[in-house]
Amino acid sequence: ATGLVTQDPYRHKMWGMSELSVSGGTRQSPINIQWRDSVYDPHLKPLKIHYDPTTCLYIWNNGYSFQVEFDDSADKSVIMGGPLENHYRLKQFHFHWGAINEWGSEHMVDSKVYPAELHLVHWNPVTSTSFEEAIMENNGLVVIGVFLKLGAHHAGLQKLVDALPAVKHKDTIVEFDVFDPSCLMPSCPDYWTYDGSLTTPPLTESVTWIIKKTPIEVDQNQLEEFRMLLFTSAGEEEKRMVDNFRPLQPLMNRTVRSSFR
Ligand SMILES: Cc1cc(C)cc(S(N)(=O)=O)c1
Ligand SMILES: [Zn+2]
After folding, report:
1. Cα–Cα distances in angstroms (integers) from residue 233 to residues 36, 92, 169, in the given order
2. Ordered alpha helix ranges (H), 43-202
3. Is the ipTM of this complex over 0.95?
4. In a designed cystine with 134, which of 53, 123, 156, 235 is the match (CB 3.0 to 4.6 A)?
5. With bands split at pLDDT 50, 70 and 90, how would you rate the model's confidence at 15?
């Protein structure tokens, strides 16, 4: 993983390992999850996921990743259970990936890095009145992380991949209706959970992370489609959208809990 340092993905942005952690940063993300240091918590419940496919709105390229946005004006696509005290609404999901299959994920497991990582971002409608407010709230957000590994073709992901050429450039958008992101979840219920932060600005320490233990499989062509997106807007000199992951952050005084023995 030392190679990663020279591959500092956001070398053109000062919020990787090199910047002063945000607000005294005691709970920054991503982290390396040391399996043997994680603590089984028998009080952790199974995660309950109820996504309504008709809440899917559109896909857009935000200059960091491609993002699928959902209608979060009601409790239609929600998660509950797991480490959570109440339900959280799905707002968006996006991915992080590398230029090659040897790296790309933000979190690692025993220093193993995956070629990509899916983040499903949810906010707490009980303690916040909007997603924007929840970003600034302690535990205002829950992000589910799912690792992607190279393997079989993923039929559910392909619908998303087929739309990517329409959002090649930064700030482009395409309608995307009726998609159920549950198809991107592994069937294995096991997860780790820890308190962390956003991995992109504003890097606020408002996230309860739920990292699924089992990766989903996608094929080479699907990963290569991610890598054909651009960081840059139409008309600018093209910069391929790759290595859009933040470097590992110090664990500091945190314990990662597991839902499984
Ligand atoms: C709210 C939010 C926005 C963005 C762009 C990225 C995240 S992350 N990578 O921490 O899941 C969260
Ligand atoms: Zn993310």
Report:
1. 44, 22, 5
2. 131-134, 155-161
3. yes
4. 123
5. low
> Does ligand 1 have an atom closer than 6 angstroms to the CB of 256?
no
* H-type alpha helices, the chain: 3-6, 131-134, 155-161, 220-226
| Distance between Cα 74 and ligand 1 center (Å) | 21
- Contact of 228 with 163, CB cutoff 8 Å: no
Whether the per-residue pLDDT at 11 is higher than 80: the answer is no
Whether residue 200 has its Cβ less than 6 Å from ligand 1: yes
Ligand 1 centre to CA of 246 (Å) is 11
Report which protein residue has its CA nearest ligand 1's atom 9.
Answer: 199
Q: Where are the beta strands (DSSP E) in 83-213?
A: 88-97, 108-109, 116-123, 141-150, 173-175, 191-196, 207-212
List pLDDT tens digits, range 150-174.
Answer: 999 999 999 999 999 999 999 999 9
Residue type for 208, please?
Answer: T
Q: Report the Cα–Cα distance between both ends of the chain, in Å, rounded.
A: 27
CB distance 143 to ligand 1 below 6 Å: yes
Of residues 226, 231, 225, the one with CA closest to residue 169: 231
Rounded to the nearest angstrom, the distance between the alpha carbon of 64 and the centre of ligand 1 is: 10
Residues in the chain: 261
Q: How far is the CA of 4 from the centre of ligand 1 (A)?
A: 21
CA-closest residue to ligand 1 atom 12:
198
Ligand at minimal distance from the CA of 196 is 1
Residue 89 dihedral angles phi and psi, to the nearest 5°: -95, 135
CA 95 to chain centre: 6
